[in-house]
C-alpha cells in the first residue's frame, strides 16, 4: 500500500469501475462490493490523497444505496463524530441498541458542547487554541469549521483585556458583533465598532473594526494599545492592494505600541503561515492547519457555448465524465431550474450581471402567493421605491446581493431568504467571499472571474465552502447525508469570457494533488520579493508608516513631512496626493485661510476649498478618477447637492426622488446628460473605462434602479474617501463643528449620533429617537446604546416598516 498513489491508480482498471460509480451508471451489488473493498483498502493507505478518495467513495456509496452503516463505522474510526452521531439518529437506518452503540453514544458526548457535536480534529483545534491563548497563532480551517467560536473563546478566556477583532468588511463586522452580543459574555459592557465610540479613558476595550476604522482609532489616541488582535479572513494580507497594505501597516503600529501584543490569524485557506510574517515586526507564529476532509464536492460543467455538453469533473482522478442529457439543449436558466435544490446560490462577478440575471431568472417564474413576501415587497417599496428591481425578483422567490444593495435592505432580505422556504435563489458576487453566511444546498457558478482576473484556487474553494455548512448538513430535519456531497455547477454561457477554458480552470484550482502555493504580493510581507517593479510601493508604504508614527521602521533613511498639513494628511491616510511634493504648497493655502479667517460652514464653500486645497493636487492616474472629476464645477455642484440631502437626513426614497428630479431637469434643460455611474457605466468620457451613462435614454424604472446604486456608491465614496479630507479640515480647525457632525453622521443631535456610531442607520435612529425613546437606553458618556426587547413588539404593533424592525432586531441583546 505504501507505493499506491493517485497517479498509479489512474493506470489501472479501477478507473472504469469508478466512472460507473461516480455517474451511478450500471451499478449492481457486485460492483458495490468491489467499491467497498477498495475504499477500505484506500482508507488504510499512507497516501493522504488515496485515503481521502476512500472516504469519498464511502460517502457516495452510502448516499447512493441509503446504507449508512459503512460510513458510520468509518466516521467513528476517523473521528468524524458529527457524522456518526447523526447516522445514529436516523430512524430509517437506526441500529438496535447494543453495548457497542451505547458505548459510542457515551463516547460522542465527550465531543458535545453548546448543543453541537465536534469532530476529533475540531476538538484538537479548540484545545490548541486554548493552550496557545497567550501566543501568536494562525488557524487555517475550512469555512464553517467554527472560527467564530474561537473568537468567542478569546473573549471568554482573556477577560478584562484590550481585544480588537479586525474584519475586512462592514457586513462581517456587523455579523461578528451580533454573534458576540448573543453570546452574553458577562464582562463585555461595550463593543466599539466606530472610532468615535472610544472615549479615551477606557480599559478592557472590545473593538470590532475594519483596518480603516482601526487606523482612525489609533490616530485619535496615540497611547492606545491592544493585548489581543484577531485578524479574520487573514489571507487578505497576502494581496497587494491598498487595503491589504494598510492592514499590514496597522499590525506594525499595534506591535510597536505593545511589543507583547498577541495576534490570532484566522483564515480558511493558506499554504504556509510564514507568508503572514510582516516586515518590521518580531512576532513568531504557531500554526494549526486542519487536515480533516469532511465534505466531498461534486463538480459539474454545463457548457452551452455551441453544442451543449454536460459532464462531471472528478478532482481525484482528474478526469471528466460525460453525462447523458435527458432534455433538449437548455439555456442557463432552464438548467438551473432543472437542477436547483430548495436553497441555491448563484455566483456572478459583476454587480450589473447579478441584477441582470436576477431579473432574467425571476421573469421565468410565477408570482408567489405569500402574505410574508407581499408585506416585504410593500415595505421595500416604501423604503426604496415601487420600481426597485429587487421587489419584482422577491415576488418570484429570488433575491440578489452585492455591494450596492443598501445595508438595511441586505440584512432584511438575507433574513427573509433564511426564514422563508419560498425564496430559493440568492444571486450574488464576491460579497459572499467576505464571510457572509447564507444557507444553501447547491451553487451555480455563472462566471469564473473575481474582479479582472479568474477566481484563485483559494477563492474558489472558499466560495464552494459556503454551500452545505456543517449546521445544515447535521440538521436533524434531514433524512440523509446528501449534503456531504455539495453539488457545484459551472454553467458556462454568456457571462464567461469567450475564450474561457473551464476544464483547465477547474484542473488548476481543484485537482486534489495539485500543489497550490501562496502568492504573497503585499510589499510589507517578509516573503514578498522586492524588485524594481514594486520597490517604489514598499518605499511609499514605509514612508506612510513612519510618518504616521515615528520610530517604527528600523534604520529609516527616507523622508519625513515638514508641515502641519503634511503630518495631518498622513494621520488621516491620505494616499491620493504626493504629500511630500505638495505639502508646502497646501500649507501656504491653509495659512492663507487662517489669515483671511476663512471658516467653512456650508457645503458650497466646503467643496470649493476641498478642491483648491487637495483635489487639484491629486495624482493623475486611473485609481484617482473619482477625485479628478472635481475639476469640473458640475461635479462640485453635484456633491454639494448630494451632501445637502445627507445633512437634511433624507431617507432613501426621498433621495431617489431627488435624483429623478435632478436627472429629468438636466434632460429638459438640454444640459450635458452624460452622468457618472462608475462601475455601472456604459460609455467612456475621458479615457477608456466605461464610467458614464447617458441618462436621457433611460426609462423611469431604469433611472430608479440607477439612483439606488448611485446613492449607495456615493455614500460609500463619501464615507471612505471624501470623509478623510473632511477629517483633515476638522483636525486643522477649518470647518464648523455642526457642519462636520452633519456630514459625518447626518445629524448633530448627540443621541442620534450615538446610535449611528453604534452601527444603526440614520433612518432607524431618527425613528427611534423621535418615537421610541422609552425603549432606548443611551449612555452619553460611554457612547453606548441598548435597545430593549419590548421595542420590537411595540414596532410591530405600530405597523412600522419591517426593514426598520429587522434592523432594530439586529441590535437587541
User: Within the largest sheet, what's the order of strands?
Assistant: 12-11-10-19-16-13-15-14
CATH superfamily of the largest domain: P-loop containing nucleotide triphosphate hydrolases
Estimate nothing, just give the exact number of structural domains: 5
Our estimate of the beta-strand percent is 5-15%
Specify the number of helices: 33
Q: How confident is the prediction overall: mean pLDDT?
A: 92
How far apart, in Å, are the first and last alpha carbons?
Answer: 56 Å
Helix % is 40-55%
Give the biggest beta sheet.
8 strands, mixed
Helix-strand makeup class: alpha/beta
Architecture (CATH level 2) name of the largest domain: 3-Layer(aba) Sandwich
Number-wise, the strands total 24
What does this 3D model show about the protein?
This protein has 5 domains: 6-117, no CATH class; 120-289, 3-Layer(aba) Sandwich (Rossmann fold); 322-510, P-loop containing nucleotide triphosphate hydrolases (Rossmann fold), CATH 3.40.50; 596-742, no CATH class; 749-810, no CATH class. Helix content is 46%, strand content 11%. The chain is built from 33 helices and 24 strands. The strands form 6 sheets. An 8-stranded mixed beta sheet has the order 12-11-10-19-16-13-15-14, with helices on both faces. A 7-stranded parallel beta sheet has the order 5-6-4-7-8-3-9. It has a 3-stranded antiparallel beta sheet with strand order 20-22-21, with no helix packed on it. The radius of gyration is 28 Å and the shape is globular. The relative contact order is 0.08. Residues 128-269 form the Helicase ATP-binding domain.
Amino acid at each position: 500500500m505504501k507505493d499506491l498513489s493517485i497517479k498509479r491508480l489512474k493506470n489501472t482498471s479501477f478507473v472504469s469501475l469508478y466512472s460507473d460509480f461516480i455517474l451511478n451508471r450500471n451499478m449492481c451489488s457486485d460492483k458495490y462490493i468491489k467499491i467497498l473493498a477498495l475504499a477500505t483498502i484506500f482508507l488504510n493507505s499512507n497516501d493522504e490523497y488515496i485515503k481521502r478518495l476512500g472516504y469519498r467513495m464511502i460517502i457516495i456509496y452510502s448516499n447512493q444505496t441509503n446504507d449508512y452503516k459503512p460510513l458510520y463505522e468509518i466516521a467513528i474510526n476517523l473521528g468524524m463524530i458529527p457524522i456518526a452521531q447523526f447516522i445514529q439518529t436516523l430512524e430509517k437506518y437506526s441500529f438496535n441498541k447494543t453495548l457497542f452503540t451505547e458505548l459510542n453514544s457515551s463516547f460522542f458526548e465527550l465531543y458535545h458542547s453548546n448543543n453541537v457535536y465536534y469532530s476529533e480534529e475540531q476538538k484538537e483545534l479548540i484545545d490548541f487554541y486554548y493552550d496557545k491563548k497567550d501566543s501568536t497563532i494562525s488557524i487555517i480551517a475550512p469555512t464553517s469549521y467554527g472560527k467564530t467560536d474561537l473568537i468567542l473563546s478569546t473573549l471568554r478566556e482573556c477577560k478584562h483585556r484590550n481585544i480588537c477583532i479586525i474584519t475586512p468588511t462592514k457586513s462581517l463586522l456587523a455579523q461578528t458583533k451580533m454573534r458576540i452580543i448573543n453570546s452574553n459574555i458577562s464582562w463585555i459592557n461595550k463593543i466599539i465598532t466606530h472610532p468615535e465610540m472610544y472615549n479615551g479613558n477606557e480599559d478592557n476595550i472590545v473593538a470590532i473594526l475594519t483596518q480603516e476604522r482601526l487606523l482612525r482609532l489609533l490616530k485619535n489616541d496615540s497611547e492606545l494599545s491592544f493585548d489581543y488582535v484577531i485578524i479574520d479572513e487573514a489571507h487578505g494580507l497576502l494581496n497587494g492592494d491598498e487595503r491589504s497594505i494598510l492592514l499590514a501597516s496597522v499590525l506594525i503600529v499595534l506591535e510597536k505600541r505593545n511589543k507583547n501584543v498577541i495576534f490570532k490569524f484566522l483564515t480558511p485557506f493558506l499554504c504556509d503561515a510564514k507568508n503572514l510574517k510582516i516586515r518590521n515586526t518580531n512576532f513568531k507564529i504557531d500554526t494549526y492547519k486542519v487536515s480533516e476532509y469532511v465534505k466531498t464536492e461534486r463538480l459539474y460543467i454545463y457548457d452551452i457555448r455551441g453544442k451543449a455538453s454536460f459532464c462531471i469533473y472528478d478532482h481525484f482522478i482528474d478526469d471528466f465524465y460525460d453525462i447523458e442529457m435527458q432534455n433538449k439543449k437548455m439555456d442557463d436558466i432552464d438548467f438551473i431550474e432543472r437542477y436547483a435544490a430548495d436553497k441555491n446560490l448563484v455566483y456572478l462577478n459583476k454587480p450589473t450581471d447579478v441584477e441582470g440575471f436576477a431579473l432574467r431568472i425571476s421573469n421565468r417564474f410565477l408570482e408567489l402567493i405569500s402574505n410574508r413576501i407581499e408585506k416585504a415587497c410593500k415595505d421595500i417599496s416604501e423604503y426604496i421605491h415601487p420600481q426597485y428591481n429587487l421587489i419584482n425578483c422577491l415576488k418570484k422567490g429570488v433575491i440578489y446581493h452585492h455591494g450596492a444593495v443598501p445595508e438595511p435592505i441586505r440584512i432584511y432580505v438575507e433574513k427573509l431568504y433564511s426564514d422563508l422556504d419560498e425564496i430559493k435563489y440568492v444571486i450574488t458576487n464576491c460579497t459572499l467571499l467576505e464571510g457572509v453566511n447564507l444557507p444553501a444546498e447547491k451553487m451555480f457558478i455563472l462566471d469564473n472571474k473575481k474582479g479582472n482576473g479568474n477566481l484563485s484556487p483559494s477563492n474558489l474553494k472558499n466560495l464552494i465552502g459556503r454551500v452545505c455548512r456543517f449546521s445544515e448538513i447535521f440538521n436533524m430535519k434531514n433524512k440523509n447525508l446528501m449534503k456531504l456531497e455539495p453539488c457545484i455547477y459551472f454553467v458556462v454561457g454568456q457571462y464567461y469570457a469567450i475564450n474561457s477554458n473551464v476544464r483547465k480552470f477547474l484542473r488548476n484550482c481543484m485537482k486534489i494533488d495539485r500543489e497550490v502555493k501562496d502568492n504573497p504580493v503585499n510589499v510589507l510581507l517578509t516573503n514578498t520579493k522586492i524588485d524594481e517593479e514594486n520597490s517604489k510601493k514598499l518605499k511609499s508604504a514605509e514612508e506612510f508608516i513612519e510618518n504616521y508614527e515615528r520610530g517604527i521602521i528600523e534604520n529609516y533613511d527616507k523622508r519625513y513631512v515638514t508641515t502641519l498639513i503634511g503630518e495631518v494628511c498622513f494621520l488621516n491616510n491620505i494616499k491620493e496626493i504626493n504629500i511630500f511634493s505638495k505639502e508646502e504648497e497646501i500649507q501656504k493655502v491653509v495659512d492663507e485661510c487662517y489669515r483671511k479667517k476663512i471658516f467653512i460652514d456650508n457645503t458650497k464653500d466646503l467643496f470649493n476649498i476641498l478642491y483648491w486645497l487637495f483635489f487639484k493636487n491629486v495624482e493623475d492616474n486611473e485609481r484617482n478618477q473619482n477625485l479628478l472629476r472635481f475639476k469640473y464645477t458640475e461635479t462640485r455642484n453635484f456633491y454639494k447637492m448630494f451632501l445637502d440631502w445627507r445633512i437634511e437626513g433624507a431617507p432613501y426614497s426621498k433621495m431617489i426622488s431627488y435624483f429623478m428630479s435632478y436627472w429629468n431637469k438636466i434632460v429638459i434643460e438640454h444640459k450635458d446628460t452624460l452622468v457618472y455611474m462608475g462601475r455601472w457605466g456604459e460609455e467612456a468620457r475621458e479615457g477608456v473605462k466605461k464610467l458614464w451613462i447617458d441618462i436621457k435614454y433611460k426609462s423611469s424604472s431604469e433611472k430608479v434602479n440607477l439612483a439606488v446604486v448611485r446613492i449607495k456608491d456615493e455614500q460609500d465614496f463619501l464615507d471612505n474617501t471624501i470623509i478623510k479630507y473632511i477629517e483633515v479640515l476638522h483636525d486643522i480647525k477649518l470647518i464648523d463643528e455642526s457642519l462636520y457632525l452633519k456630514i459625518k453622521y447626518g445629524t448633530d443631535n448627540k443621541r442620534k449620533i450615538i446610535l449611528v456610531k453604534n452601527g444603526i442607520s440614520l433612518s432607524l435612529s431618527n425613528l427611534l429617537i423621535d418615537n421610541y425613546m422609552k425603549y432606548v437606553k443611551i449612555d452619553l458618556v460611554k457612547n453606548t446604546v441598548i435597545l430593549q426587547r419590548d421595542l420590537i413588539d411595540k414596532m410591530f404593533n405600530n405597523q412600522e416598516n419591517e426593514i426598520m424592525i429587522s434592523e432594530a432586531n439586529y441590535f437587541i441583546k
